[in-house]
Amino acid sequence: MFTAIILVAMPDWAWANTGIKALTVTTNPDGTQDYTMSLQALFIMTALGLIPAFVIMMTSFTRIIVVMSILRQAIGLQQAPSNQIIIGVSLFLSMFIMAPVFDKMNENALQPYLNETISAKEAFEQAKLPLRAFMMSQTRIKDLETFVEIGGYQDQVEDTDDVPMTVLIPAFVTSELKTAFQIGFMLFIPFLILDLVVASVLMAMGMMMLSPMIVSLPFKLMLFVLVDGWNLIFGTLATSFGM
Length: 243
Hints:
Elements: H1 2-8, E1 23-27, E2 33-37, H2 39-48, H3 51-57, H4 61-75, H5 83-114, H6 120-137, H7 141-151, H8 165-204, H9 212-226, H10 229-239
Antiparallel strand pairs: 1-2
Helix pairs in contact: 1-6, 4-5, 4-8, 5-6, 7-8, 8-9
């Protein structure tokens, strides 16, 4: 299904022909042969290498991993959970959130194409619709207007349906980063208050040489566990996408 995402991001000229001649063999008069790879096949092979970037930029992955990183910083932990765990949790939580979108892409585009009932270009158009609807629902109008103006599409875009993917993707990423920082700010407040309380107590006791971070860390962990923090974080992230 991730392959369908990369197909959505391709420009329309990549689908100019439904058939792709990957390799052309030319026989010279002296009997030697020259091998030529078509530009279309070369473009698709190169685009497949960009699948991780498109998965990160066109799904809920960006918001989740930014919030998780801010949470780790707010608690004061350096390596727990590790980067591998954060990336893995963000990836599988993204798959959970994006499951309805992937199901629509599979039902309306991938399966009909595999059954040869629609062409590659028609499958591309059908696969683009649910992913585009998801991205548009999470994108702020202000961000869309900014990139439409930067790209000079003011005369071409009259409605959100006219916004090209090359404009929607950066606008979506911008909105995701803003939302992630807003959630991160709300997560930071209780831990910051706890740090201030601990620092004030230590200063009142004359223990200014003792780092407040060392003392407050176990209290932060205890607070996070008592309020069932992971359940709250994951639930908040899932519901923030309208699930």
